Amino acid sequence: MAEARDEVDIAVIGAGIIGISVAYYLVKSHGVRSIALVDSRDPMSLTSAQSGENYRNWWPHPVMTTFTDHSISLMEEIDRESGGRLNMARGGYALVTRRFRPEDLIADLQRGYGATPGRVRIRENGTSDYRPPRRAPWSEAPDGVDVLLDRDLIRATFPAYAPDVATVIHIRRAGSISAQQLGQFMLEAIRASGGRVVRGEVKAIAKGAPFELEVALEQGTKHLRAGRIVNAAGPFLRDVGAMLGEEVPVKCVYQQKISFQDGEGAVPRDLPFSIDLDDQALAWSDEDRELLAGDPATRHLTETIKGGVHCRPDGPADGTWIKLGWAYNERASDPHGEEPIDPQFPDTVIRGASRLNPRLAAYIGRLPRGAHHYGGYYTMTEENWPLIGRMKTEGAFIAGALSGYGSMSACATGAICAAWVAGSPIPKYARSLSADRYADPALMAQLAAIGNGSL
Ligand SMILES: Cc1cc2nc3c(=O)[nH]c(=O)nc-3n(C[C@H](O)[C@H](O)[C@H](O)COP(=O)(O)OP(=O)(O)OC[C@H]3O[C@@H](n4cnc5c(N)ncnc54)[C@H](O)[C@@H]3O)c2cc1C
């Protein structure tokens, strides 16, 4: 078998949206030319292919709000520059609850969005300047968040929702993108600047200056030397860490989605990405309940399930596809094993989503032919913040643990990690997105108190 030797300044391990974005900003902002993206799979084909492609700047902590705002601004820049290739839509996120005036959520909004006046707008009786969601260029959409407490306004704006909805929190800098197009656009720019993609699996890394990566190619083994390396291996961050003798503190939690053609027109085409925040117990017949409760694998379906079931129209205004998801799984899995796809999931998510969108109940037990059921890993830290920065090994960096928000934050992740690699200044807010935060007990205590919600 042939053995080739090769050398680059920087090797990025992983060509998902995160590795690609790191390489893109190294090329674009730091003039790097000698760079290889190493991946055993096609670019963008693992977790990055499963993304719901939603984005939002809604977070309970201002660092994450700043992080995603930064990323959205970079996406908007690319969308402009590429003549709209990202298909950015900005109908917003609608967070829905049956609780009237949920003070805890309003406090979260105020903490997350900071003190800027007018960013959180409470809409009570008879407010007329609320702008309902519509399909329009993202540049025309408002910013901030509207908290709708007026039931008449809610009924008039969101007639598809169940009548018991009491509050809608409408996040305005939010919507959908084509993350695949984002990845393609970046790959083209990387290649045009002399960067390349090496199709192979990194099996071992010999530390040193340079590093020596053992890469298993289809046709043999390659030894790739690299001055600096970036671990962007998605669900396999720990494996690459172990090759350097380091422990990466992440776990992998499998989450699923379904999409299908909504022949019943249950979901209006201008509906924002809608999330039912309330926990719920699914309605079952007595017979079904007994059957499900009797099996340890399905008992959880008869218990209260945490809020977060979501739904949105997918594709063009005149299309019919919709997407549904519910990240209720909390059990970590081994990403080397078989994917823990749950055959019950489509039925569960339809039942759950029909509580908010009652017309979806038409699909209970009647999932349309051609429906897709798919999933992937949320690779996440305990506190659900990413890892972007230096590893312990000199010359090694990490960009990952982007959980369920990696498409929307890929651009900022790439820009920040590229700055670390190039030795350039890091935006102040971004220091705590690196492993440095573990040395800050006050911040870690604050994050533990906020909780690690993953939608
Ligand atoms: C069901 C689901 C829905 C989601 N919805 C959204 C959403 O709506 N919005 C959003 O912003 N985010 C969403 N996400 C999250 C987003 O998809 C991820 O955060 C993002 O894709 C992670 O990208 P990545 O590049 O880190 O990982 P990946 O895409 O998994 O890429 C990692 C790559 O590393 C390669 N690799 C690993 N080890 C090696 C090795 N040893 N040698 C060579 N190559 C290696 C793998 O082959 C892989 O291609 C969702 C995720 C899931 C699972």
Shape: globular
Mean pLDDT: 94
- How large, in whole angstroms, is the Cα Rg? 23 Å
Ends distance: 47 Å
How many structural units, i.e. domains? 2
CATH topology of the largest domain: D-Amino Acid Oxidase, Chain A, domain 2
The name of the CATH architecture of the largest domain is 2-Layer Sandwich
Uncertain segments: none
- CATH structural class of the largest domain: Alpha Beta
Give the tally of β-strands: 20
The CATH homology group name of the largest domain: D-Amino Acid Oxidase, subunit A, domain 2
Q: Which structural class best describes the helix and strand composition?
A: alpha/beta
Topology pattern, helix = H, strand = E: EHEEHEHEEHEEHEEEEHEEHEEEHEEEHH
Query: Roughly what percent helix?
Result: 10-25%
Give the cofactors and ligands: flavin-adenine dinucleotide
Separate helix tally = 10
- The biggest beta sheet, please? 10 strands, mixed
How large is the share of residues in beta strands? Answer: 25-35%
Walkthrough of the structure:
With 455 residues, the protein is an alpha/beta fold. It folds into two domains: 2-53 and 179-250 and 383-450, 3-Layer(bba) Sandwich (FAD/NAD(P)-binding domain); 93-176 and 252-380, D-Amino Acid Oxidase, Chain A, domain 2, CATH 3.30.9. It is 25% helix and 25% strand. α1 packs across α5 and α2 packs across α9. The longest helix has 20 residues, at 62-81. The radius of gyration is 23 Å and the shape is globular. The mean pLDDT is 94. It binds flavin-adenine dinucleotide. Flavin-adenine dinucleotide binds next to α1, β2, β3, β10 and α6.
